[in-house]
Amino acid sequence: MSEDKKIIFSGIQPSGFVTLGNYLGALNNWTKLQDEYNCLYCIADLHTITVRQEPAKFRKTARELLMQYIAVGLDPEINIMYYQSHVHQHAELSWILSCFTYMGELQRMTQFKEKSQKHSDNINAGLFTYPVLMASDILLYQTDLVPVGEDQRQHLEITREIANRFNKLYGDVFKIPEAYIGKVGARVMALQDPAKKMSKSDENKNNTIAIMDSPDVIMSKFKKAVTDSENEVRMSEDKPGVSNLLNIYCAVTGYTVEQAEKEFSSSGYGDFKKAVGEAVVAKLEPIQKKFHDLENNKDYIDSIIKNNTERASYLAERTLSKVKKKIGFTPKVR
Ligand code: ATP
Ligand code: LTN
Predict the structure, then answer these.
(1) Are residues 284 and 312 in the same domain?
(2) What is the mean pLDDT of residues 301-313?
């Protein structure tokens, strides 16, 4: 890591195949940052167990997520990409910071409210303290910027609160991070229900496009996407389905909304949806190819995991040991 570059940290949960929402809201933006910043990207597997996982499938999904990081263009020699559960400092700092976080703050988190509604049979304490673990991820690396989608903004705010609170008590221990939210693709909505965000753990697979979906599947999901009773391709709050498709189209092609509206000014929804599907298929094709190449390269992936875990652990330990000292824990006798 070069000392003069700012630090970027982010993560994605291995809770399923990466969606077009994750790609446009997060991964695609990350690939543009790797030269200018020192970037760390974790596979947030500790966060994932806030919802029950089937062990074999979980392990496979986590491995595939790392391969998708690489396939979208994140260079594992430049960026530090690793599993959160391999770096024990995350869980340790999370306990410490949970003692500097108030119940009231956590109760206000919309993700907690949403997830506890969705998993009403398993509202566990981890789901509640999820933002503290996320704050620990970020603060461990003295992060300057956190590129995430709009849905994570609130978690960033609480991270800053916790860091400021800690710093006030103990001096400048943590860098105060800022959210870094891309404009295009910041929030991709579910195709069948554009009032909610596209989410990789959604049970209705017609709501999501996985970046590994085949061209046929992608085309058919766009064909089924909800629009409205008009037949006018226009960005508008009262046209959430069409607006979402336009947003996707612009994000993958690089066109502005005005350009896209003009392009489809005399098209019906059928043609419009087909064009959106085709643009997405074209964008994902090279990613899918790279992913399949990586599937045949087990040793390479293993070596990435080993090296990057070591790099992350070293940095994480620097902050954690400082935190422990400041708090007044008794030093180990060597
Ligand atoms: P889950 O379904 O398990 O909650 P998710 O698909 O919502 O997963 P996360 O792992 O929580 O995704 O998020 C990974 C990254 O993708 C985050 O930076 C998040 O802001 C971004 N992201 C997630 N969903 C969307 C979306 N629909 N639009 C834009 N960005 C998104
Ligand atoms: N909670 C995030 C994933 C995540 C993350 C992080 C993002 C875990 N740790 C640290 C940014 C920084 C999510 O669900 N998108």
Answers:
(1) no
(2) 97
Which stretch of DSSP H or E encloses residue 70? helix 55-71
| Range list of H helices, 196-268 | 215-224, 240-253, 257-263
115 lines ligand 2 (CB under 6 A): no
Active-site residues: which are they? 115, 197, 200
Same domain, 209 and 107: no
* Distant-in-sequence, close-in-space partners of 256: CB < 8 Å, separation ≥ 6: 250
Sign for the pseudo-dihedral over CA of 124, 128, 132, 135: positive
Contact 139, 163 (CB under 8 A): yes
Mutate to test the pocket of ligand 1, among 8, 9, 10, 12 (most ligand atoms within 8 A of CB): 12
Q: Ligand 1: which residue has its CA nearest to atom 14?
A: 12
Nearest to 72 by CA among 300, 304, 283, 282: 283
Predicted pLDDT of residue 105: 96
What pLDDT does 184 receive? 62
Ligand 1, atom 7: closest residue by C-alpha:
199
CA 213-215-221 angle, to 5 degrees, is 70
Q: Which ligand is nearest to the CA of 159?
A: 2
| Cα Dmax for the chain | 76
Domain membership of residue 334 (yes or no) is no
CATH code where residue 255 lies? 1.10.240.10
Count of domains forming the chain? 2
Q: How does pLDDT run across 256-302, given as a tens digit for each residue? A: 999 999 999 999 999 999 999 999 999 999 999 999 999 999 999 99
pTM for this model (two decimals): 0.92
Give the residue-averaged pLDDT of 59-68.
Answer: 97
Question: Which of 22-26, 149-153, 211-215 is the most confident on average?
Answer: 211-215
Contact status, residue 191 vs residue 225, Cβ threshold 8 Å: yes
Whether residue 12 has its Cβ less than 6 Å from ligand 1:
yes
For residue 18, the 8-state DSSP code is: P
